[in-house]
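User: What would this chain look like folded?
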Amino acid sequence: MRRPFVAGNWKMFKTVAEARVLITELLPGLTAIQGVEIVLCPPFTSILPVAALLEGTAIGVGSQNMHWEASGAYTGEIAPPMLAEFCKYVIIGHSERRAYFGETDASVNRKVKAAIEHGLVPIMCVGETLAENEAGITNEVVTRQIKEGLNGVEAQFIGSMVIAYEPVWAIGTGRAATADGANAVIADIIRALLAQIYGGEKSELVRILYGGSVKASNAVEFFRYADIDGALVGGASLKASEFIAIVKAAAN
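Assistant: Here's the prediction, encoded as structure tokens.
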């Protein structure tokens, strides 16, 4: 039985002062929920204060990105060992990173392998654009992203990874995929492909999330499906009542 997983991606929101306020609003509700792995991914500047506030709780801390090198002359970048001091998780290959900052399947692959090497849990994002969806090539796009993103990742590590299916056309638009459609991609494409690559037993260990305009009002629909193991939540993770309600839906 895979443990439900809900991560909040705060994106480029919340100063340190605002992050502290949000954590104090979240903690009473989140700490009362059992049976769900909860992760908060603030901006780099808030990782340390958020980690300090979450110390002693079961809530994890994640980063929204990282470089693949352990150190070097990469101005403005953050290395895996720097994150590993305070984080357990790292989001890799989010569609906004791919669209605005030149992330490719190859760079995603390098980051995934670097995260594993440094003891971080990658939350690897995949998903098709609206044009790709309307052209009927979702299968082709997601298959390529999975194969190239996991190229060279050994079977012994795959079970600890998290994969997030995020149709690009649903992120920040308020237009979520249908629960049935999301489940079809997750079960029939992603988990089926993982079974081909790593075997059925290993594929059943991988938690696969849905992301893209997840809200308290639609979370229950997504979590009804056994192959949807949780959510990578964007805008709704910035509102304490919304995020708590989503985590409760995952618990139920």
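The two ends are 14 Å apart (CA to CA). If you want, I can go into more detail on any region.
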